[in-house]
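Trying the structure run again after the queue cleared.
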Amino acid sequence: MRCYKLELTLTEPFACGARPLNGNEIGTLDYIPGANVRGSLAAALQYIEQKPDLEKWFGYAGAARPVFRYSPAWPCDPVTGRRAAPMPLSFLYDKGDDGLQGDYGVWNHLLNGKDDAPIAEDAEGANTGHAFQWTRPRHRWLALDDRGLPVRGFSVPVENTMHVGLHYSRRSSREGALYSQSSLPRGTKFEACVHGTESLPANRPELLFLGKRRSSGNGEATLRFVERDSDPWWQTAALPAKGDICLQLMSDSIVPDVATGGYLTGLGAGFWKSFCNAELRSAHSASLSVQGWSGAWGLPRQASVAVAAGSVFRLGIGPDTDVVKLRRLTTGGLGLRTQEGFGWVVIDPPWLLQGRGSRLRGEKAPELDNVSPLPLSWPGVALERSAQVRLAKLARDLSPRLERHAPKIAELAMRVSRSGVAHGVSYLTAMASRPNPHKWEEFDGVLRGVNVPAMEREEMSFLLDALAGLVRNRNRR
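Done. Tokens:
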């Protein structure tokens, strides 16, 4: 078996799978479907005059099995660049918390029963009495380290553009926008997988055009092929002869229902019993509708229902379980249209085996000065980027000590912005010197401890504005 990693980087905005969400708002998928990867590759091969090789790339071998299976292109972490997997639906967040990078981490309900409720503890191990309210994760993707262990949850950033129509007589824009289009910004990185029985042809495209609105400056992406070992990076060497295994869907899976002629919305105990004689111990899954359009044929695809990516199952393996059939899921896929990116399955991935009896913790959000090349200089601020990064880091350090002083921060920021640093410092001193200062002396002490009064006007305004936003967000938790 051969396996290739495809590294894609957007050089133009990307919109795919757009459908009206509410009125004139059109959304986009936050990943690239396998069918889109295949279609773009086919178009690129024809462009570089490799049309005779299309059968090698997309043809079928014996028993109508595709020579190569194409996965969706999963997004990479926009901050760290790490590879990612769909967030397992068994990873639960405490309500209002930030999951792996938050205060209370993640509870992997797939490995823990309903009676295994965690206890909130402080740094010294004492019970804080916090009452957990577990909810579905608010992040769509899970960033992983080189060992496949969970690092942080993230959502792909999306940008929006407004589109207007032309007035036919004046040739100027009409009043009001026609619609709003969401897209993924340029610079977004993805990883896909091509798995097959042979080697890919030597002549490979280096540029793709993906998604919708390609004629208006959207969809261009660079492409790089990296040959790997025989299996994708997430596969395990072998399955246990007995015990439990954990299985996750890496892409949506269209599974036919033999009883009704339709499609399954979930993979229950009956399915696993008939499929491989395994016992379903725990499951967390969701379903969604799947539609599509074949550009080559000019015809719509049949509407289907799929079990969503990120669905997870814990199965009990016994002496009568068909382990070979289970293992075949990792190479042949689950359900229909597996050559188009549906039905990718992983068994016992490292990230899904973490958190038995305890909460999972990941990495905190990286400091701004460790992030490159982002962020860019703050617009409208006459400061060097290095100074902005230094002040933003200082604001993050001060914000835990100033949680109770949000009104004072806003008041001082307004006075510095209007009348300058000298007026702001004198006002701060006067308020802190009153007989009943109402905590102004505490606020004054924190700012003087980092020599804030010696700053220039632009520096102090930037710091106070950043502090105001950070303290406001902390108070919302």
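The chain has nine helices and 24 strands. Worth checking whether this holds up in the mutant runs.
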